[in-house]
Amino acid sequence: MRSRNSLGFFFLVGVVGLLILGALQQLVGSICFQKAAGTGEGGRIALEAMQSTLNVQPSHSFSWFVIGRRLQDLSTGAGVTLITRRYLLEEAKKYLEEAAFLRPTASLYHYHLGRVYAALSPYHPLLKPRVHMAFCRTVSLNPTNIQFRRAVASYYLNQYGLLSKRVGGSESDIEMTRENFQRNFRALLEMQPPHEVNRILDHCFAVTQRYEDLREIIPDRPEYRFHLAQFLMEKGLWTSARKEFEIAIAQDPTNPETYHAYGSALFAHNQYQEALAVWKKAQATSPQDPRSYLSVSNAFWTLKRKDEAIAELEQLVSIHPDQTSYRLLLARRLEGAGNPREALRVYREALEKHPNKARIYAQMADYWVRQGNFSEAEASFQQAISLSTSTLGYRNQLARIYFRQKRYARAIDEWQNVLKQNPKDISALMGIARSYEELEAWSGALRYYKQVLAIRPDDRSLLQRIERIERKTAQ
Questions:
Q1: Would the pTM count as exceeding 0.90?
Q2: Distance (Å, whole) CA 340 – CA 345
Q3: What are the tens digits of pLDDT across the range 158-183?
Q4: Which of 4, 133, 162, 244 shows the smallest number of beta carbons within 10 Å?
Q5: Which class is domain 16-142?
Q6: Tens digits of residue pLDDT in 84-130
């Protein structure tokens, strides 16, 4: 009898305890809920109003969804504790599950349900399969939604990063998450232009740090392979980048952009003959494109094969006879190869085609300076100044010619013309100061050096110049 009474007593205590525990849970939940809801009366009343609609329309999926989303948003609010957050997510899960049950074809419902499952999975590891199911359902129902695809891909990428770092992680789980993030990012790129590749690759590479994990993200098309190759170059993964360049060229052998970039990359890695071969293919593919001729010429020039460098430029000039910059570069190369007469001939041909281009006269003036013919240089700069609307650079150069000839007064006049357009031109102020110093006009030199010092107060060399002149004038 006593044992029966004891059992009855303990049973009663147990029941009461469970009731008390349930009441406490409800109380804590209610407190958490109202606290997170912004517990002004407005927040609580709004939620109650939303919940009351379910009494009127219990099968209205959108009402369940709206409440679930509201709870989901509240869980991410500032100042929400971990306990409150978990409670709100649990509540959001119930409402979103009901919404998805009532309307199973709504991708938005499955998307947010997947996000809630993902947020709860650290507390309930068994929810991870449900995350996968919800996200798969989302993208199968709405495969072209960029927001959904990006979020799903990022989830799997982050999971892959976590699993890869975990000691003793399941190989099958790692492989599954890898395939999922690769497949979803690839689908995302299919919906976006190739220039989006770098942003997505940056996001993935920050987690994976491996080429092998990136290559399956890229749609198997030449424009995407080209962008992957350039990305790998930026990351210093030259061997992998080279593979991608070659795949891109094999897939589209007519794109000069790929040849040009690949040739530049080869040359930067001291693979000169291969670079030249790639650029030559670019010339054959697109014979009007000037970039390959310029690249080949620059490469030959760097390799001290000057005659071949000049021949490339001559071919380019023959293809684009009206392009002044190519003729001017050819003239500079001829002069650099020790053939100033041919250089002068090319300059004069350029002037015959474009007699009113100041740039040609300015470069000819530089040529005459290097030849030591200052009178011709002065005449060429004067002509450039007369033809140009922006003369500061040319006047500065002309003033420097006067200075080199010790024609200091003329140099000062020319630099004063510069200062009329730009009173803070450092070159002109320094040039005038130095000219006055050469003329031993110390007060003028000091005045202009101090103007420069006001612009560059930390220049110690200026202070030394000023101190030296002040010592001279004090003697």
A1: no
A2: 9
A3: 999 988 887 666 888 899 999 999 99
A4: 4
A5: mainly alpha
A6: 999 999 999 999 999 999 999 999 999 999 999 999 999 888 998 99
- Tell me the Ramachandran region of residue 459: left when phi exceeds 0, alpha when psi lies from -120 to 50, beta otherwise: beta
Structure tokens of 351? Answer: 């002037």
Residue ranges of domains in the chain = 16-142, 169-252, 414-475
